[in-house]
């Protein structure tokens, strides 16, 4: 589904503090599978996720999504692909403060012009599915870590994306909440979604739901496992 | 089309909820903005309405006034000048007017004395303006006495008071009969204060004025248009003076709004990053922020303008009265006829709503073009 060929990514290119976060990545990600990118801090796993998720463009190399080269597309087209194909769950959840959980869930769908009633119904159904419906009207800042994450997952799913991307999803959760998260990942997988995660949490990497663990170090792939 | 409308509706909903999230900042901005629009709109509405009022009043006044000049000063004009003017082709009618000023020591105010052509006032009676009635607490049937030019006492019985609707020009009026006027000031028969000339064809006013000037070289001709222009410039000058005084406040507002609108907090930048990451286009983010600016500035504009309207047309423009009406012992109490000029509204709109909206968009545009992957770092 997603294929990376000799992908490199530099930050501050041409300056004194030039830094290569990725140094030639060749990788294929299968549809409907759960893949985890594992590695120490600074290994390039988050950068890899941003390239796959169309949040950034590689400095060189190719990123193909369903055989379409998306590495050179202008911002406008990348946004379109990002909105329809990917759903993001950020490490800090990144919910907007001051508005309710359900409003946060609906935000990615606003630019699509979906009817408000239909959108609200869809958001409620997602919150219901993730066992967080009673908190729909709570402001984002009043939610606990686990609740905020489930709202963030609901937000990632509102446009019914094919791929869900989660950056260090268990970094801010205790073991119990982490297990609950992995249960959700399982249901996502069952519903046919492709899940990409970064993590160095053994609980995530060793769980049965994960199909493949890709290890990175210093911007390069170290090994591939399953 | 439906999805386009749905998108705009969703954006507007989100805009309103964004504004309510920053309630303190939004309300503070709205309050300052509204007061500026209120002040500017009040000055504009007031001076425009009063200029228009003066123009309406002057429509009824004679097209040409003829005054006799002696040594550069206005003097009484003999009745024989009437015949000389009547003989000029194009003159419809000409009549002598009697008017002057009378100082009333008990009210410490000047009244404008006039002998009206109609209604004809009986000797010994007077019709007074609204401010005169207030200054002397006079009611119909009351007696008022004044010392004539020779020291004798002249008594008037108040026959009626002029309504407040025409108070702008009638507040200090004191309408008396010709006999009483002449007795009070010692003006003999055959002399008038000035002459009012009506012209058959309004386009010939200039030509007829030239002919009068040629026939009666010791006179000064005053045209209605000239009086109108004088009024205009008086009110223009007052409006300008007030606007100059307000310029400081306007400048302070400009700096304040620029800082408020253009300064993006770290939180706002983070939010823009999140919106972009979850699939909003740069254009959507800019549209959202523009809507925020538009909602604030439009609300402030409408609110400020409505308050100014009420202030000027229902509360008598209490805040600017002394500056705009000029100084007098006897202020006319009147209600201006509500009048709104579209061009004026458009000007005010352009100078208040437009700059604020632009000030909001510039920094947002800069923030919105940053890569969405910032939120992942």
Summarize the structure.
By secondary structure, chain A is α/β, with parallel strands linked by helices. Chain A has helices spanning 45-52, 75-85, 101-106, 116-129, 145-157, 175-190, 202-205; strands spanning 2-11, 19-29, 34-38, 60-65, 68-69, 86-89, 163-167, 194-198, 212-217, 220-225.
Lay out the secondary structure.
The complex is a heterodimer of chains A (226) and B (377).
Chain A (H helix, E strand, L loop, with lengths): L1 E10 L7 E11 L4 E5 L6 H8 L7 E6 L2 E2 L5 H11 E4 L11 H6 L9 H14 L15 H13 L5 E5 L7 H16 L3 E5 L3 H4 L6 E6 L2 E6 L1
Parallel strand pairs in A: 3-8, 3-9, 6-7, 7-8
Antiparallel strand pairs in A: 1-2, 1-4, 4-5, 9-10
Chain B lengths: L1 H20 L1 H37 L4 E7 L2 E3 L1 E2 L1 H7 L4 E7 L1 E6 L4 E6 L10 E4 L1 H7 L6 E5 L5 E9 L5 H4 L2 E3 L2 H8 L5 E2 L1 E6 L5 H11 L3 E5 H39 L3 H12 L4 H32 L7 H5 L16 H27 L9
Parallel strand pairs in B: 6-10, 7-9
Antiparallel strand pairs in B: 1-2, 1-12, 1-13, 3-11, 4-12, 5-6, 7-10, 8-9
Helix pairs in contact in B: 1-10, 2-8, 2-10, 2-12, 8-12, 10-12
Q: How many runs of DSSP E, i.e. beta strands of chain B?
A: 13
**What quaternary form is this?**
heterodimer
- Can you give the mean pLDDT of chain A? 90
**Gross CATH architecture of the domain at 2-94 and 161-225 in chain A:** 3-Layer(aba) Sandwich
| Fourth CATH level, the homologous superfamily of the domain at 2-94 and 161-225 in chain A | P-loop containing nucleotide triphosphate hydrolases
Q: pLDDT under 50 segments of chain A (min length 5)? A: none
Largest sheet of chain A: 6 strands, mixed
Distance between the termini of chain B: 38 Å
N-end to C-end Cα span of chain A: 18 Å
Tell me the radius of gyration of chain B.
Answer: 31 Å
Instruction: Write down the secondary-structure element order of chain B.
Output: HHEEEHEEEEHEEHEHEEHEHHHHH
Instruction: Give helix % range of chain B.
Output: 55-70%
CATH fold naming of the domain at 2-94 and 161-225 in chain A:
Rossmann fold
Shape of chain A: globular
Distinct helical segment count of chain A:
7
Rounded to an integer in angstroms, the radius of gyration calculated over CA atoms of chain A is 17 Å
Number of strands of chain A: 10
Q: What characteristic shape of chain B results from the CA principal axes? A: elongated
Class by alpha and beta content of chain A: alpha/beta
